[in-house]
Design brief:
132 residues, alpha+beta, 20% helix
Length: 132
């Protein structure tokens, strides 16, 4: 299968870079899958979701992403995240505590709601079961 260059960077560091067959992400407009040769686009990433990068058949890199942008050009896919964590770098017990602490935050509690979405994305990326 054909591949495309993918770069995922957070504000303070490069998270992952390499060749991938597909990138799946959630934008404000909805879920998007990007294969090589995709039309150019610029999208705003939804807060608190997982970006999945298919690097080869059956192998996937999962990254908890908290806001940012996704750009598709002829050169590949660039993901510029406010915060991003590879699944292997996530402290599951800490994420679970944050999830439990903020799960009842409502829309009026912007900080609590944001903390809940970050924890949910971390748990999703790490392969843990969470309620959506």
């Amino acid at each position: 299968m054909a591949t495309q260059q993918v770069e995922l960077v957070a504000v303070d560091h490069e998270v992952w870079s390499g060749e991938a067959e597909v990138v799946n992400a959630r934008t404000l407009e909805g879920e998007i899958g990007i294969l090589p040769g995709h039309a150019p686009l610029l999208g705003v990433l939804a807060e608190g979701h997982v970006v999945r990068i298919g690097v080869s058949e059956g192998e996937e890199i999962r990254v908890a992403v908290h806001g940012g942008f996704l750009s598709v050009t002829d050169d590949g896919v660039q993901i510029l995240a406010e915060r991003a964590e590879l699944s292997d770098d996530i402290d599951v017990s800490r994420a679970r505590r944050a999830y439990d602490e903020h799960k009842d935050a409502d829309e009026d509690d912007a900080e609590g709601r944001s903390a809940f979405l970050r924890a949910q994305a971390r748990l999703d990326a790490a392969g843990e079961t969470v309620d959506h």
